[in-house]
UniProtKB/TrEMBL annotation:
Name used for this protein in its record: LacI family DNA-binding transcriptional regulator
Record keywords, A-Z: DNA-binding, Transcription, Transcription regulation
Residue stretches making up the HTH lacI-type domain: 2-57
Domain of life from the UniProt record: Bacteria
GO molecular function: DNA binding
Annotated PANTHER family: LACI-RELATED TRANSCRIPTIONAL REPRESSOR, LACTOSE OPERON REPRESSOR
UniProt keyword Translocase present: no
Organism: Actinophytocola glycyrrhizae
Amino acid sequence: MATLADVARKAGVSAATVSRIVNGSPKIVSEELRERVLRAVQELQYVPNAHAQLLARSHRTTVGVIVHDVSDPYFAEITRGLQRVASEQGRLVIICNSYRDPDRELEYVELLRAHQVEAIILAGSGYHDPAFTKSLNAKLSAYMATGGRVSVVGRHKLAGDAVMPANEEGGYLIGAAVFAAGHKHVGVVAAPRQLTTTTDRLAGLRRAAREHRRSLPSKRIAYAEFDRDGGAVATAALLDADPRLTAIIALNDSMAIGALSVLRDRGLSVPGDVSVVGFDDMPIARDVTPPLTTVRLPLVEIGARAITLALDTPHPSPRVEEVAAKIIHRDSLSTPHN
């Protein structure tokens, strides 16, 4: 088994320098030295002493959270759960908005690592991007080698613990409700293709379509930004392409609200002319007119679970906690009237 002295020899530095880096000491070292030592740690498969790490990291009271956009109600609710637990445990939370830019996420991981945060939580969707995933995993692994903790929300191929919302099951539940109501001409307002959340929710919709012997052709799926304006743009495109649509399934509630605005502007009633359903059950979903049928994910609980995993005693293997989805029936869905 490799020792700290072995790592020091391989990296060409003192044992004290290796100790500072692998144990997360607040003393500043150059990035070049840090990378050299971490490379030696990886090559020699050196396992740091847990007690030494605990002593060196005793000053850490900050948690870094990377979200796509905290102004999005989905991430606002998750962040509320994170901050509640952080406050209870005397931690400060640093929130970083990536705006769904993978390069920015990589930069934030480096920045948070440089600030010696106790844990990093990635609360945004995973990406279908192998090169990005490989780069992010390398940075997270280097951070974890110094005693840092990582947890993620959603489906990622990343190191660390995970909280998994039931996106596929939720897609199935909302799709089954729409098809069971008798709708045959259904349009889907979808989020960007590169997000694993989009893939999973669409997979659930397609499963429901198969079970109800309905079709969900690609021409009836419009991809747009995961927000209210994106929902409006996608809904307009769907209606222009197929005026026979009797139902629109939006992959989040913000997009569903955009859909409602377009239908209202075109003089179409909901659900009289077109039914509209959403996903996530944001607080506003019950206050729009008509109140939105949607899928409830316990977003505050998801945030609380993610930070609890990150601050908990480390486990030898990554943990995955699944969070169930539940359909919430309100007034925006009815049987087709034409």
